[in-house]
Amino acid sequence: MADFNAQPLERLINNFQKLPGVGRKGATRMAYQVLSMDKAEAEEFANAIMAVHSQIHRCPVCQNFTEKEVCRICDSASRDKSVICIVESPRDITTFEKTREYKGTYHVLHGLISPLDGIGVDQLTVKELLARLSDDTVKEVIMATNPTVEGEATAMYLSRLIKPMDIKVTRLAYGLPVGSSLEFADEVTLFRALKGRTEI
Amino acid sequence: MADFNAQPLERLINNFQKLPGVGRKGATRMAYQVLSMDKAEAEEFANAIMAVHSQIHRCPVCQNFTEKEVCRICDSASRDKSVICIVESPRDITTFEKTREYKGTYHVLHGLISPLDGIGVDQLTVKELLARLSDDTVKEVIMATNPTVEGEATAMYLSRLIKPMDIKVTRLAYGLPVGSSLEFADEVTLFRALKGRTEI
Questions:
Q1: What pLDDT, on a 0 to 100 scale, did the predictor assign at position A53?
Q2: Each residue of B12-63: pLDDT tens digit?
């Protein structure tokens, strides 16, 4: 409504407001920060925005974003090609990689089945996943979708598709987060933690 | 440290991290958001960043940012040129304008005197301010710097410069913020509110 800023500033503020978690005040601070950058710095920023669009595409194997022909993980000889971890988004791969424990490959669905949002199997990369499973390389598929309604439904749907292909399908364990307190655990999590208890 | 994202994404994340209040996680979300924009939207964003640099400069009168030759406020016939409100930054003007009560003009210092940060009078727009006061147009100067140590010191310094020119120098009132509670007022604010009490 109130537009007391110079028009180019107002335009940049509107652009920053499109970003997740950025409101009018934050966007204004960001726009002023850009204004206070020197020209080379602002140019680098603008070019970086264009570069993600011109240089990044999906890896033809795992559908993760990459600037290479095939992504680093699919291209690596040291990764176990017999295990595929199925995730919702490329960001989840970053989270897994940080653990430095997982040595298999990934498959990015780019979404979850969500009829309410009009997202069905066709919008996800299920076809590409099934193509990867068609030869005998893959022995195990790990469902690593989020523990939400949509994540569960998608994992369930995919496991029904994949199990008949004689491939082991597993799901991430449910339980108490490390470092948390019993006091704050919800009943469903606690029930799952009890059910999934292991011998020590 | 851990770099599991495609390189162009990583580059954009680094650029977003330079913005105020944006950490690694927020920058990552923003970069993915840009990736999910269509190309025209990303281009508009990149161009908006360049535009603030190429199109915005300081108004030669009040030193506010503007894309016009002289800013809208200084150029407006309906603004009272005999009153100048001195503020630290262009953002403060937006705050004042939102009240829709002030009809005078502004002068942006672009900083406050702060010897610890190596900011002296020469880095501020004091010379330009004194030039504006040299003819007899201006009757009152309102000090609207922040109620901080630096803001106070700067207001004090400027008032000593301006008073001998036979111009009225005023300072924004201190007191309780509207809608606040006495309970949460600090002693200094309460003391100032008491000292500045007015008849009703």
A1: 86
A2: 999 999 999 999 999 999 999 999 898 999 999 999 999 988 899 999 999 9
C-alpha gyration radius of chain A? 22
Q: What does the DSSP 8-state code read for residue B122? A: G
Give the confidence band of B107 by pLDDT, cuts at 50, 70, 90.
Answer: very high
User: Could you say which residues from 95 to 124 on chain B have a Cβ atom under 8 Å away from some Cβ of chain A?
Assistant: 97-98
Q: How far apart are CA B38 and CA A99, in angstroms?
A: 32
Residue-number span of the structural domain to which A17 is assigned:
2-54
* A12–B48 C-beta distance less than 8 A: yes
Same domain (yes/no): B137, B90: yes
**Residue B177 DSSP code:** P
Q: Is B119 helix (H, G, I), strand (E, B) or coil?
A: strand
Residue A93's region, left for phi above 0, alpha for psi from -120 to 50, else beta, is: alpha
Q: Which of A11, A39, A54 is the last residue of a domain?
A: A54
- CATH classification of the domain holding B21: 1.10.8.420
| ipTM value | 0.74
Q: For residue A33, is it within any domain?
A: yes
Domain for residue A61, yes or no? Answer: no
Using the beta-carbon criterion (under 8 Å), do B67 and A21 form an inter-chain contact? no
CB contact (8 A) between residue A8 and residue B48:
yes
pTM above 0.95, yes or no: no
Which residues of chain B make contact with A6, given a CB cutoff of 8 A?
A: 55-56, 65-68, 71
Q: What is the CATH number of the domain that holds A127?
A: 3.40.1360.10
Q: How many domains does chain A have?
A: 2
Residues B29 and B86 in one domain: no
Residue A133 lies in a domain: yes
State the angle between helix axes of B7-17 and A39-55 in degrees (0 to 180), rounded to the nearest 10: 150
Looking at the partner chain, which of A35, A45, A51 has a beta carbon nearest the beta carbon of B8? A51
pLDDT tens digits for A160-190? 999 999 999 998 888 888 888 878 888 888 8
